[in-house]
Amino acid sequence: MSKTTKTILGLVILIIIVLAIYLGIGKKATQVEEKPVAKETVRATIKIGAILPLTGGGAMMGDSGRKALLLAKEKLSGTKYNYELIFEDDRLDPGMTASAINKLVGIDKVDAVISFSSGSGNVISPITQQNGVIHCGIASDPNVAKGEFNFIHWTPPAAENEVFVRELQKRGIKKLGILRLNQQGIAAVIDDLKNKIKNTDITIVSDQIFNFGERDFKTLILKVKNENPDIIMLMAFSPELEILAKQIKELGVTTPLTSIEMFEFSEQMDLFEGQWYVQAADALESFTSTYRAKFGDDYKPGAPNAYDCFNLIVNAYEKAGTDPSIKPDRLSVINILHNTKNFNGALGVLNVDQDGIIWSKAVVRMIKNGKPVTIGE
Q: What is the pTM of this model?
């Protein structure tokens, strides 16, 4: 074999060896890449609907409630399930409320609903009960909590009136005049008030009722004035509340005004400057400061309640579920809700009683420089 042939043969062998090594490495690399990758568990999504007055007279409260719910969802971390919020506007109109709840239940297939006001809650609760959908109403009327799927989170009329009557007695007020909207939550407050004053020297000298949409209250105001009350209690939402206050002033009535809750539902709180009233509990500073930092404004009534409702529902689902890919049975969830005690909420330590009512305290406030200031409990 010639020297040239040997050289060529050596080069061929070298090439074959290099190719074999290269192909072997490539095959191993390919095998590594083809190793099956474990699939990530797909988490089930819990849908929570929120029916709020996002437009109309109650828009100020509805928007604040919407912000509180978004804040609650934003602060979730490490949950077993995904949580989705679906908002519907009802303008506090019963017809719109009915349409909203039927859409959420029938089309969106929500697992839970949060609502605002006793009027809306009374429309919603029979539907959620019938369909086995969890409902947390920000409402004072206990009828909203009827049925095991329905709950309410608001300072109950009994707690508010206990503080209200005590404040009336403290101030020596004996004759009370009332101008009030025909609405379930307001009726629940006044009915309880009438029971609370039975064994006191306080009497209701005039109780005038009007309907949504009325704008001329002068006749009713004069009926109350003619009974010489020591104080006049206004129970209405916007815009009726502001119209009442302005017409009282136009008629030259100087009798002090008071309320339970309603003054803070107004965007014109200066109309009630210097007047005291009873309001649902103050939120904790931790919620107040977080809300203010996020939205650049103070929360409105009902916002901390909405925040708590969302977190109570999430807490119950997280405790009831075992498999992140499968929603827990709603009966298991409501069982946990009904047995919730010492829950740390925006309104302090919360407990759910056997009737589905989530209790919180009441406080006395006064409008000072156009803003609410707590002055007692």
A: 0.77
